[in-house]
Amino acid sequence: MSDRDGSVARDGGELDGFHVGHVPAGVGTEVSDFASEWDEVSFATQVWERQVAEGYRVDLRVHVLRVDRLTDLTALRDFLADYHERDPAGGEWAEFAHPDGPGLIGVGEAFWLVEPGVAVDVLADPERCDRAGLAATARAITRAAASA
Q1: Does 117 score more than 70 pLDDT?
Q2: Contact 88/78 with Cβ under 8 angstroms?
Q3: Residue 72 Cα distances to 16, 62, 102, angstroms
Q4: Nearest to 79 by CA among 137, 40, 35, 135
Q5: 94-98 and 55-66 as β-strands: parallel, antiparallel, unpaired?
Q6: Which residues pair with residue 15 across a beta bridge?
Q7: H or E stretch including 32?
Q8: Is the pLDDT reported for residue 102 higher than 50?
Q9: pLDDT at site 9
Q10: How far is the CA of 147 from the CAs of 7, 13, 64, 77, in angstroms?
Q11: How many of the other CB atoms lie within 10 Å of CB of 74?
Q12: Any idea what DSSP says for residue 72?
């Protein structure tokens, strides 16, 4: 798959039961996976970064969140506002149709509720990935096929 500028995007692999099917061209090639917990929410995270003169810069992050209290899109939005330390009423969010469930997309972030208790949050550096690229990346994150 090619991005708008003709450069080739790549597959991002597996993350906690999901397949990251599209990493935009121009996103760094250094990849780290880790697990964490914040406010009783389990996170599985994959980060793509690139080396810059000052060290490393994160270009793309994908979080898979798991906790029972994420029951609807409003609960997810409010949790992410707290987690990212932003005003829950702030930002310009548009409805985002992901094949797995309802979501919202804004500048540099898209998230959706896969099912009650499971959500995905994608954050991209807006200088490396515009809204169309973010939406393409988010829509390409799908549940991984079950092992036979």
Answers
A1: yes
A2: yes
A3: 20, 19, 9
A4: 40
A5: unpaired
A6: 18
A7: strand 30-38
A8: yes
A9: 66
A10: 32, 15, 19, 32
A11: 10
A12: S
Q: Is 34 helix (H, G, I), strand (E, B) or coil?
A: strand
- Predicted pLDDT of residue 18: 97
Q: Where are the domains of the chain?
A: 13-143
Strands of 141-143's sheet in order across: 13-15, 18-20, 141-143
Residue 138 has pLDDT above 80, yes or no: yes
Backbone angles phi, psi at 42, to 5 degrees: -85, 130
Cα gap 63→44, rounded to integer Å: 6
Contact criterion met (CB below 8 Å) for 125 and 60: yes
Query: Each residue of 25-75: pLDDT tens digit?
Result: 889 999 999 999 999 999 999 999 999 999 999 999 999 999 999 999 999
Distance between first and last Cα of the chain: 27
What is the DSSP annotation of 92-135? --EEEEETTEEEEEETTEEEEEEETTEEEEEEE-TTTS-HHHHH
Place of tokens 């959500």: 119
Residues listed for the chain: 148
The structure tokens listed for 61 are 């992050």
